[in-house]
Amino acid sequence: MRRWYVAKHLPAMGPLARQQLGAQGFETFAPCQIERIVERGRVTESKQAIFAPYMFVAFDRDDLGTRWQRINNTRGVKRLLPLHCIEPLPMPIGCVEGWQERVSAGEFTEEVIIDSLLGYLPGDFVRVIDGTYAGHVGSFRHQQGRAVQLMMRVLGNSPVPVTVDIGMVQRPMRKQAMAVNVQT
User: Fold this and answer.
1) Which of 11, 35, 92, 120 has a Cα at 20 to 30 A from 183?
2) In 3-13, which positions are buried (b, 16+ CB within 10 angstroms) versus exposed (e)?
3) Which CATH superfamily hosts domain 1-117?
């Protein structure tokens, strides 16, 4: 089944990475928004990637002909996420597709992203897919703007509160969540 996955690209290499992946037959998605900058009385507009340095890549992980492993060796791509796993974890079904529809309709903003990622309830398990805690599973506590607080076993037996960006978490597969015993 074709799903969307997150890939991290090297600094300032997003367009090259998307071009190279497209040449290999992979579909990519990297939504942008227009940013207006006022400098010395002049207003300039520039396209800024919303998820920089991340993009989404669609492929069927189980299709032997896809050879998704080559994505990690593509010019401009650092690695598929999460970094410390053998196989990448897919985005929730319908998430990226919904964002693509909003982009087509011209109504895709950072607020839309945050709203679509909401829906975590206290106690829900989430996996951190990038940053210091990449690969760890924690229990969702609450969210304030883009900051999400999780309870996570980091150094010992007692769970501690950890704050990460909303873009760095995703729901783990049910088996992985059941294997982790995190108390809130």
Assistant:
1) 92
2) bbbbbbbeeee
3) NusG, N-terminal domain (3.30.70.940)
